[in-house]
């Protein structure tokens, strides 16, 4: 379950870079929906082709399925080239994720949720300090999760990442019900159905994660909640309003 969801993580991040995208109102939805569809088609076609070429027993222990498939079809040279291209694609994806993480931290800092250092930019508008901090934190996390078994390490990192991604998904479902109340019209049953399915899927995905991953994710969320409260008090000097709003007749 987590591996499947992990494969699609990132397509929703087009909204994070909305501040540096031309015509975001048009292009962000296109990138989000189009990214999901293109990724789904590529995953289905590539995995179907590989499963048809490589026996299941060999596929389970393969370290480079695409390279093995190319090696079977076109020879050892083709297999090496495909493996190199796959590694280059991973490095490109890592670079893109690093840049995106810097923009995410900057957006949070602009809203007062992260320390101001993440909002600092150079003359080109790049959050250099945020990128360096995010890069260091990513490196520390990677070293702390190192395992002699690469598959085990990947499973740990992907599971934790998926759990953290599901949290804003759950908030989005709740926001859809709250902000859209009274605005759905005749389409209200459809939106309620979609939201219910999304809620069930998110909860199911969390349950499908390992107990260790869920525990550490929950502990991290608790720490983040405490840091948010401290940061809120630092930014807002006035006392938090405790009086409930009174409805005027």
Automatic annotation (TrEMBL):
Family classification: Belongs to the amino acid-polyamine-organocation (APC) superfamily. Basic amino acid/polyamine antiporter (APA) (TC 2.A.3.2) family.
Pfam family, one: AA_permease_2
Domain of life of the source: Bacteria
Keyword check for Transmembrane: yes
Keyword presence, Lipid metabolism: no
GO molecular function: transmembrane transporter activity
Compartment list: Cell membrane
Keywords: Cell membrane, Membrane, Transmembrane, Transmembrane helix
Name of the protein described by the UniProt record: Arginine/agmatine antiporter
Transmembrane segments: 28-54, 124-144, 156-178, 190-208, 214-232
One Gene Ontology CC term in the entry: plasma membrane
Membrane topology: Multi-pass membrane protein
Organism of provenance: Salmonella enterica I
